Amino acid sequence: MAMGLEAAVQAILKADELKGKILNSKDLLNDNEAWTCQRQLQRIYQQVLILDLEYALDKKVEQDLWNFGFKNYIGTLQALTKDKKNPKRSECQALLSWCLDAASGFYLTLLQGICSAFDLDLPFRRNVGVYGGLGKTHEIENEAPSENKDNGIQVCNKRPRKSSCLYVCQHCLVHLGDVARYRGQARQAEAFYRHAVHVAPCSGQPYNQLALLEGSRGGGSGDRLSVVFHYVRSVCTAHPFPAGRSNLERTLKMALPRSNTDTPPAYNSLEDLSSL
């Protein structure tokens, strides 16, 4: 077994232990051990993605990273922040802002590390403006070390497929867009999502996120035609986004008049759309 792969396998075993502790936590926000496990999990998954990207993707590390490293906490805090009866609402809002800042910084760093480790030259990385929040004089390109030894991470000798590299870059961009959307930064979120489309046009997820973003504009009264358009794109790509179909169906049911059978007109045409 290659050294990079062997280290990745051992890291995944450790990550599974940490994930189990997080899952067993009864109170994520007040469980200090769960917070510690979360941060350790983030670091381990970041390392595994660079140690052996193909193995990491096979184990769906990128999905667990988002869900257990960030999304579960963000979702819990969002619910507590929206609860007007919550006496600690302001504290939850402050903690939510901190979590979103941490998530944004993490995925920017991960994107830099992936591009540096696998010699990826993505055009938009040359324009620091895409990263928002960072000063114009801040050179993004110079942040990533030329060798990952500086980070204590050894890259697997077997170079991953370019499609895998682009996929994980898109993954970072999509979640950078998600974080911006949670912050209410619609223009920045759209920029990240569109960069994600450019990186891997055959993937449906960025289109699904663009539909969510469009639907959230104007307090949830966004351009329905644009929402439907992006959901259609999300299911008509070479790699459709699994939730795109149900999202499209729900949007059509809300937008179109109902018939006697309580089924929207042209509902059957959805089958034709999905097979394009």
Automatic annotation (TrEMBL):
It comes from the Eukaryota. It holds the Pfam family EST1. Residues 60-186 form the Telomerase activating protein Est1-like N-terminal domain. Signal peptide: none annotated. One of its GO terms (molecular function) is telomerase RNA binding. GO terms for cellular component: telomerase holoenzyme complex. The keyword tRNA-binding does not apply. Gene3D superfamilies: Tetratricopeptide repeat domain. This is Uncharacterized protein. Residues 257-276 are annotated as: Disordered. Residues 189-254 form the DNA/RNA-binding domain. Keywords: Nonsense-mediated mRNA decay. The keyword Ribonucleoprotein does not apply. GO terms for biological process: nuclear-transcribed mRNA catabolic process, nonsense-mediated decay.
